Amino acid sequence: MALNPNIIELFRRLPRRKGRVLTLGEQTVMFSSARLAEMLGQRDLRKDLTQTDVFEALGFDDVQSLDVSDYEGSDHIFDLNQPEAPAHLLGQYDMVFTGGTLEHVFHISHALQHAASFVRPGGCLVHLSPANNWMQHGFYQPGPEWLSAYFQQNGWQIEISAVIDVIDKTHWIVQPPRRAFRGIRQMLYGVGVRSEEATIDTVPVQNLYIRKHESDDSETRFDQFPAIEIHNGDVIEAAG
Fold first, then answer.
1. Are 142 and 101 in contact (CB under 8 A)?
2. Long-range contacts of 165-172 (CB under 8 A, 24+ apart)
3. Domain residue spans of the chain
4. How many CA atoms lie within 13 A of 138 on its CB side?
5. Considering only the top CATH level, what class is 2-206?
6. 120 and 171 in contact (C-beta within 8 Å)?
């Protein structure tokens, strides 16, 4: 993924911005040094920005990256599909930014656990990825509960869980994409803070099932899918 002004605005709202940060993948910077200076109220670096420049401007003092190869010069080489994480990275970072990487990893549950395992107690895991229906981007388009259930059931504090529109809601794309990375552009954003007692390996169950199976909550039910049809690119509610 790339760093754009909207993502920087999200980072500015993080509970803490200092220490060591690890990005999954090397992040391309999609704005100028003048724009960064304007956003953060700092002097213009007058250079082509790297992710290190951006995170240091945000307050971090050690910026590292992890990737499956050294193609982009990452500090750490590791395949997130693997079941065991590198021991020397465990609990070492104040912030881990998944950076639009997890949806491209076939064993996405391994990738999420690894990312969480790199966070030290008191640090945060910051996740950003295409959400449901942004097809033809990666292997997966997770919904909000995928992340919030993982945080909640592993004892992490949920700082935020949100779905962010990338384009105006009137511009939903319903045609098959003509090239990669097109689709309905909503992104899943979440931040979890790791506590001393938090775990990383509790496999979450959807909260709806927990409520149904562990309580007498007769109000909990599954809604039926709405009956819709698509005609000439327009979504029309079907009769009956």
1. no
2. 172/235
3. 2-206
4. 19
5. alpha beta
6. no
Placement of tokens 């097809």 in the chain: 135
* pLDDT values of the chain reduced to their tens digit, one per residue, 240 residues: 789 888 898 899 888 889 999 999 999 999 999 999 999 999 999 999 999 999 999 999 999 999 998 888 999 999 999 999 999 999 999 999 998 899 989 999 999 999 999 999 999 999 998 887 777 678 888 888 899 889 999 999 998 888 877 654 333 333 334 455 555 566 778 898 999 999 998 877 656 656 766 766 566 554 443 444 444 445 444 444
- Quote the pTM value: 0.76
HSE-CB at 136 with a 13 A cutoff on CA atoms is 13
- Other beta carbons less than 10 A from residue 157's beta carbon: 14
